[in-house]
Structure formats: C-alpha cells, structure tokens
Amino acid sequence: MRLPNAAVGDAQTSGFGWDVLTDLVDVGSRMAGQAGEREGAEVVRDAFERAGARSARIEEFEIPGWWRGESSLSIHEPHERVHDGQQDVLALPGCPAGEATGRVVDVGDGTYEEFEAKAEELDGAIAMASSATPESVDRWIHRMEKYVNAADHGAVAFVFRNHLDGSLPPTGEVGYHERPGPIPAIGVSCEVGKRLARYAEEGCEATVSVECRNEAATSVNVESEVGPDTDEHVLVTAHVDAHDIADGANDNGAGSALVAEVARLLARDDVDLDTRVRLVTFGSEEIGLWGAYRCAETTALDDTKCVVNLDGACSSRNLRVGTNGFEEMGAVFEAVTDDLDASLSTDDTISPHGDQWAFVQEGVPAVMTSTTSEQSGRGWGHTHADTLDKLDSRDLRDVAVQVAEAVARFASADVETPGRTRTEMRDAIDEGYEQELRMGGRWPYADLE
What we know:
Number of strands: 14
Number of helices: 14
Shape: globular
Radius of gyration: 22 Å
Distance between the termini: 43 Å
Domain PA: 101-196
Structural class: alpha/beta
Strand content: 15-25%
Keywords: Carboxypeptidase, Endoplasmic reticulum, Glycoprotein, Golgi apparatus, Hydrolase, Lysosome, Metal-binding, Metalloprotease, Protease, Secreted, Signal, Zinc, Zymogen
GO molecular function, one term: metal ion binding
Largest sheet: 14 strands, mixed
Pfam family, one: PA
C-alpha cells in the first residue's frame, strides 16, 4: 500500500514529532537504568497515546547499570598538567573505578597493526587511541576493540581521544558483555589528545583516575501498536536512552520521536494496513543493546516480518540504510526514495552495532536507518554537543514521511521480506566483525560450533 496524500501533507505540516523530541531533550540525562531514562520512556509512552496507537505500555527489565563519577588525567612528565571535570575528561561506561599511572603510548587510530607495532611498549603503560578509523581499513573499528586490545597488551589504562576538533571529550561503553571491563578508561578531546601525543614522543608519564559505580539497575522498553491484530508484525524501533553528558538529541532522541510520529501517521483513519505494526523504543542501547535483546527474547521471531531500526536519523533529510544483506528491504527503501525524489545511500555490511543486531543475529530481516552528514564518524554524537540546536524540524518531517511510507509497504501483504537461518547469518558475517564480537565476549553462535 501507499500512504495517502493527506497523510504526507499531515506529516509535512505537523509539529508532533519535533514536540516529542523537544520533550525528550528537556528531560536531561537519559542514562540507561537511571531516572532520566524512565522519564524519557514516559514521554514516549504518552506520545504513543496521543498518536492514537493502542496498548501503550512500559516494560521493565534488569541490566548491569553504570554511574559516572569524577575522572581526571594528570600529566607528570614532560610537563605537569591536570585535566579534570566532565568538560575535559569522561569515563567510558562499563569500565571499572580505579587509578593507574604509567607512560603514555600513542597507538594512533588503534588498528590491530598499530597495537602490534607498539606491543613491547604497552605492558604497564597507558594506551591512547583515536576515535578515527583510517580509510585503509574496510570497516569501522569500534572503541571496544581498541580498549580490549589495550588491556590484552598489558596496558593499565586506556585513553580514547576524539579525532574531531572542538574540545569535546567522547564517551561510549567499552563493550565487555561481562562488566566491568578490566582497566579504567577515559575519553579526552582532540586537543588534549594531540597534546598528549606530542608529549608521548618526548616520554610522557601520566595518571588516569576514574570514579564510577557498576551496579544492577532497572531499564525500560516502551511499546505500542497500530494496524490489524495479526500475529505477523513489522517492528519499528529506536532507543530512548542517551549518554548522561548531553541531550542525546540525534542519538537518539530523534529516533524515538520518529517512531512516535510514524505511529501517528499509520494510526490515521485513512491508512489501511494489512499487518500489525509494533512500535518499540528500547532502553539501554548505549551500554550493550539490553533493551533490544530483551525484546528479541520475548518476541515470536517467526512472526516478525522485518525490523526498521532508527538511530541517528536527523542529521539531514538524506536517508542511509544499512541492509545487513537483506536486499528485499533495501529495495523497498529504494522504491520509496525514488517515488519521493529523495536521497538514499545503502550499505549491505552485516553490522553488530545498533539495536537491529539483536534480530539480525537470529536471521530476522532488519535494517539500521539513519541519515548522512558531512561530519566524520559520530560527529556530535557521544559528546556534550549532541543538542537540539544541531537539528532541523524540516529534516525530521522529511525522514518521517520516508520511514512511514517504507513501513506501510513492509506491512503490505504484497511485500515479502525473507529471513535467513542463524547458520547463514554466522557464515555471512565479515571476519573483522566476528573478531570484534569474540573479543568482547558477544559472539552469539557458540552453540553452532
């Protein structure tokens, strides 16, 4: 089916989605398992109800929570300097509390080759790696790999430096499934990192200090639905949690607002869906995809026709869809953007990053839907600067139209989205991502070996 013209016009003139996004960023911190995440979930639940979706509800589940304290980086040689306070230094979620002193070893972008080249220097040292992935590498190297490589090479602490200018230290979880990880870890700005790299060439000694708590916590998913009450369903998802150091506007308040806006458009009386559409915002994506895994474990996956996951989808109005090799889903988005004269870029790499992975690993057709921007890497994401002023309500409206149109087509009985077996998924994963998943204890196919 197609969205009626009246629904498209409604989307282009409505302020509903932007109002939801504004309410989310005004919550403040939405850190996983903490009070702000729950408040953000309540914003989404109330938005689902106003949108006309049915059975809006919040589901609780337990997670390994993490609370940020004060962190610092003290340089002793060759020049004394102390960086403290969250504008200078941010601990990385999932790391342990602790203090470590050692010489600083700069491993560049933190590729496997760079770690091996500095292997003899890293034992007992503080390893520092950039957030960049060099163009010579054919896949993104996640901070978790750099952290694990640092620990495996005997480093006593890890420093993650932003590769983008702007005095913005990055945060982001360190990726161990079993928490906490083995060594303290902090993020520092590009400028601090470059200074530290310059000092490291002269012989630099520093101390990394992290205060944090690793304790059990309660996280939440929010769910609602539209369309007929069929067993088969299409999932439209995003994560409502965000790191505690910023508004989490694009990552991922915008995604949650878009799910609510898609619910509103599909709940209109003039939209006739063949298949039920479930709308879910997950908790705890930023610290290990816990909400997505909870949903996957409690969902009849044989009845899940496909998953459209929204994450970082308001940096422009130009869609980017990671198809994870599910070509039929990519073809639907191509048809939608062609019909709407809109831009689309696609990637078929099977990626374990994003909530869709909890379904992809089981062979359920699922895509990661975001937008492109001119910034490298995460851009403002995972920094203090991921704020509402970076986004544009017109982009949100355009993306909402494109996504709602695609979901309406996925919900049509005429559109097929064949899945794969777990064995097929295992065999299709790039060796590099397999290596990453094994390093973090997250390889999901041990039962097939």
